[in-house]
From TrEMBL:
<dbReference type="Pfam" id="PF13556">
    <property type="entry name" value="HTH_30"/>
</dbReference>
<protein>
    <recommendedName>
        <fullName>PucR C-terminal helix-turn-helix domain-containing protein</fullName>
    </recommendedName>
</protein>
<dbReference type="InterPro" id="IPR025736">
    <property type="entry name" value="PucR_C-HTH_dom"/>
</dbReference>
<feature type="domain" description="PucR C-terminal helix-turn-helix">
    <location>
        <begin position="453"/>
        <end position="508"/>
    </location>
</feature>
<dbReference type="InterPro" id="IPR042070">
    <property type="entry name" value="PucR_C-HTH_sf"/>
</dbReference>
<dbReference type="InterPro" id="IPR051448">
    <property type="entry name" value="CdaR-like_regulators"/>
</dbReference>
């Protein structure tokens, strides 16, 4: 099942809007029906597709008869019946969602059925689709090798038929994406622009230098949303029945991709909810780990943030989340959740190198213009994940102060830097002494160009050894003794007091200089 709130959120991305909701958003939906009768009785179900309804009032009456909690109706019906039977509609406990004219009922049915009927299956991971079988069927109809790609030119499926196959096709399948030089050719020829704006198939002329013998390509689209493309290897443009087969095949592919997207969206939502339960400590950790398909054993938490420039953070983070959750459940090492401005991933195992490798592989899958910062928690048991989350947050904050190309901080290696970072943060908001030995020496250095603060830091680091302190500053040990005497004349240092030495070391550690 899926809850009404989730159905509303997902369908909102396909051009639907919730216009009326007298039922709780937590209502569970388990079935999808049309307005019809069987054995003289209305077919009942939780979601009604009001195909052919002349008004919202009629759609709501159909839904009430079907005992549905939500009804989907055309925008045009909502406009025509805007003032009709308003009071009668309000008496019915039925939520109403309106459908834009650009979205077909066939496409919408694929999404709704995918969400409601396949929801139980997606909790344990998405299963294989029949896109490969569809590619084989389409290849037989058009008489050429077929490749199905997503909107980022990544290969989703390809036919076993190799008629008119060429080197470009082989490289595309092996690399799971068209090679960069070939994509540049498509861009220069306006192929990608055409796919973004037209449903008409386009013939791409041969390009012998890149092993391309010719292609016919058609957009895979739902409404205004480009989902991907279908490519047919052919030496000349398709026409007649073969061209129509390509157009019809692209529409069928769109239905499959819609269902796949709906299932993927639901799986990500289920995964996010379960991961957040672990990170917040609000559920039995062993049970949740089992539901996520993670082994019972040591784990780490990775916290990530991504952005392009200074402003575009939301889109970059969504892209990182999409890549982190792409693939079947069993093929991904971790489980992820997106909350606020941070992506959290729970990774099994205690090897910090494996966690860093995972971050590196994720960064490699993202655009080069995107900046990614991350932090890795210490090794934890499942019930300790709330603490591990805080550790990962601390390491992430530390990494954001450094060059993003440096190694991702791990808590057991960076706890001292994290402590100093906290102290520096406190110092920046004025929570350090404005008077005292260190403050006085800083003021004197500023006004007289002396190096007393550096000398004090070196002496404390060398544990009171003037020779070692001199080597740190590249001066003679007598220079250190002379400066200490002058410093003692300016302010009471009390270097023989253990507590005062410790306090000065802490205060010096908070200084950026």
């Amino acid at each position: 099942m899926v809850r009404l709130d989730r159905l509303v959120n997902v369908l909102g991305g396909y051009g639907l809007r919730l216009s009326r909701c007298p039922v709780p958003r937590s209502t569970e939906l388990r079935s999808v029906v049309l307005h019809e009768q069987a054995n003289g009785r209305p077919v009942v179900g939780d979601v009604l597709l009001a195909i052919g309804a002349a008004s919202v009032g009629e759609a709501v009456r159909w839904a009430a008869a079907a005992r549905a909690s939500v009804v989907l109706v055309r925008d045009s019906a909502a406009e025509e019946g805007a003032s009709e039977e308003g009071a009668a509609e309000d008496e019915q406990p039925v939520a109403v969602m309106t459908v834009e004219p650009s979205v077909s009922w066939s496409e919408l049915a694929a999404v709704v059925y995918g969400l409601v009927l396949e929801g139980r299956e997606t909790e344990s991971g998405r299963g294989p689709t029949d896109l490969f079988a569809l590619a084989d069927s389409l290849a037989a109809a058009v008489g050429g090798a077929v490749t199905i790609e997503d909107r980022l030119s990544r290969v989703l499926a390809y036919s076993s038929l190799q008629q008119h196959a060429d080197r470009a096709r082989a490289e595309t399948i092996l690399g799971r994406q068209a090679p960069e030089p070939l994509r540049a050719v498509f861009t220069d020829r306006g192929v990608l622009t055409h796919l973004g704006s037209s449903d008409e198939p386009l013939f791409v002329e041969p390009e012998p230098g890149h092993g391309l013998t010719g292609r016919m390509v058609a957009a895979v689209r739902t409404g205004r949303d480009l989902l991907g493309s279908v490519w047919v290897a052919c030496p000349a443009p398709l026409d007649g029945p073969r061209r129509r087969a390509l157009v019809d095949g692209a529409r069928t592919v769109a239905l499959h991709l819609l269902r796949s997207r709906a299932s993927a969206d639901l799986e990500r939502q289920v995964e996010t909810d379960l991961v957040l339960q672990l990170l917040e400590g609000t559920a039995d950790a062993a049970t949740v780990m089992s539901r996520l398909g993670l082994p019972q054993g040591p784990v780490r938490v990775v916290a990530l943030r991504a952005h392009v420039g200074q402003d575009e953070r939301h889109a970059a983070l969504l892209l990182a989340f999409d890549r982190a959750t792409t693939g079947f459940g069993w093929s991904r090492p971790g489980r992820s959740a997106l909350t606020a401005n941070t992506l959290y991933t729970v990774l099994p195992g205690d090897d910090v190198a494996a966690a860093r490798t995972w971050v590196t592989s994720l960064r490699a899958a993202l655009p080069a213009t995107l900046t990614l910062s991350a932090g890795v928690s210490g090794v934890s048991a499942a019930e300790e994940l709330p603490v591990a989350r805080r550790e990962a947050d601390e390491c992430l904050a530390l990494h954001e102060t450094r060059d993003p190309d440096t190694d991702v901080p791990a808590y057991e290696e960076s706890w001292d830097d994290i402590l100093l970072q906290r102290l520096r943060a406190a110092a920046r908001v004025g929570r350090t002494p404005t008077r005292g030995p260190v403050a006085e020496l800083r003021r004197h250095d500023h006004d007289n160009a002396t190096k007393y603060v550096a000398t004090l830091r070196a002496w404390l680091t060398a544990q009171g050894d003037p020779a070692a302190a001199g080597r740190l500053l590249d001066v003679h040990e007598n220079t250190i003794r002379y400066r200490l005497r002058k410093m003692a004349e300016l302010t009471p240092l009390d270097l023989h007091d253990d507590n005062k030495r410790l306090a000065m070391m802490i205060e010096l550690a908070t200084l950026d200089d």
